Amino acid sequence: MSNSQDPLSRDREETPATTPANTLRRLRREADLSVEAVCEATKISVTNVRAIEGENYERLPADTFVRGLVTLYGNFLGIDGPKIAAEFLAEREKNDPTAGRQARMKKPIYSSSLSPRKLAEPSHISSATIALILLVVIILSFTGFSLYTSWNPFAFLSQQGENMQTSMQGIFNSGTPQETGVEATDEQRSYTLSAHFLQDSEVMVKIDDLDPIRQTFTDGEIAHWSARDSLQVTFDKPEAATLTLNDSPLAFPEPNGNQLPTLQLPSDLLDQ
After folding, report:
1. Higher pLDDT, residue 173 or 159
2. Top-confidence residue, 272 or 13
3. Which of 26, 161, 174, 178 has its CA 20 to 30 A from that of 140?
4. Which helix or strand (DSSP H or E) is residue 193 part of?
5. Peptide bond preceding 266: is omega within 30 degrees of 0, i.e. cis?
6. In the predicted model, what is the mean pLDDT of residues 54-66?
7. How confident is the model at residue 180 (pLDDT cuts 50, 70, 90)?
8. Helix or strand or coil: residue 45?
9. Is residue 183 pLDDT above 60, yes or no?
10. Is this model's pTM higher than 0.70 or not?
11. Pick from 211, 206, 258: which is nearest to 231 by CA?
12. If you average pLDDT over every residue of the chain, what do you get?
C-alpha cells in the first residue's frame, strides 16, 4: 500500500470518523488505483474525484449531478452506488447545508433520470452544424459529377428555358403546331418538315406569320415543324441534317454565296 496522500484529502484522513468520502478513498487505495486511473475509467473529472474524496462540498456541482457522480464512482469500486451517493449527500447537507443550493443557482438542474455516464461529460453536435456539413457534401458531389461528365448545368437550364419559351409561344399565338413531336390536323397544315440532325446545330425557324425562333439541337435529335402557308428554316452549317417533307425525302438546301443554308417553303418546292 502506497504511503502517498492526495493533497486535497490529507487533512480529512487525520479524523478517524468513517464517512462516505473516506470509504470511497479507502476502497480506491485498496484496489491500488490512482485518481487518474479512476477518472479515465469513469470519465469523472479529476477535480470532482478529488473534491468527493476530500469532502470539499463547495467545489462540487448541484446535488443532482453529485448523486450521479458518486453513484458511478461507487459502482466502479464494487459497492452499492445509489446507497453511498445518498449517504454522501446526507453528509454534505449536515456539514455544509448551503453547498447544494449554491451549486443549483450556478448550474441548471436536469432530470435525475439521466444515467450517471451521461452526467459525467456530455458532448453534442448541433443540428445546424449537421445541416451545414450535408450541404457542403451535396455541393462537392454535384461539382465532382459535373466535372467528371463535362456537363454544364447552366447551359442545360438555358436550353430548357428556350424550349419552354418556344412551347409557350406556340400555345398563345395562332395555335399552329411548331413544337417537336406535335401533330396538326389535315385542315390545319400544308407542310410538315422533319429534320434528323447529323451534328450539333442551331437553326432559325419562321412559321407562317409568326416571329422567327432560334432553336438548338444535338446530334441524333429529330425536330418537326408544321405550317399552313409558309415555312423558313435557316441552318448554321451545311449538311446539318437529313430532311423529309410530308414524309417524303427532301434535299438539304445549298448555301448561296456567303449566306447560310436556308430552306423556304413553298418557293423551294416550285424551283425543284
Report:
1. 159
2. 272
3. 161
4. strand 191-197
5. yes
6. 92
7. very low
8. coil
9. no
10. no
11. 206
12. 80
Enumerate helices (H) and strands (E) in the chain, giving the number of each.
10, 8
- The answer to whether residue 156 scores a pLDDT higher than 70 is yes
CA distance 205 to 234: 7
Strand 201-207's sheet: what is its strand order? 213-217, 201-207, 231-235, 262-265
Give the residue ranges of DSSP H helices in the chain: 20-30, 35-42, 46-53, 63-76, 81-95, 97-106, 116-120, 127-149, 153-172, 267-271
CA distance 138 to 52: 49
Q: Which residue has the cell 492526495?
A: 6
Compute the distance between CA of residue 3 and CA of residue 87 in angstroms, rounded to an integer.
27
Q: Which helix (H) or strand (E) holds 231?
A: strand 231-235
For 18-44, b/e burial (b = at least 16 CB within 10 A) is ebbbbbbbebbbeeeeebeebbeebbb
CA 131 – CA 259 distance, rounded (Å):
56
Does an H or E element contain 236, and which?
none
Q: What is the pLDDT of residue 169?
A: 58
User: How far are the Cα atoms of 11, 19, 120, 127, 223 from residue 16, in angstroms, in the given order?
Assistant: 11, 9, 31, 53, 101
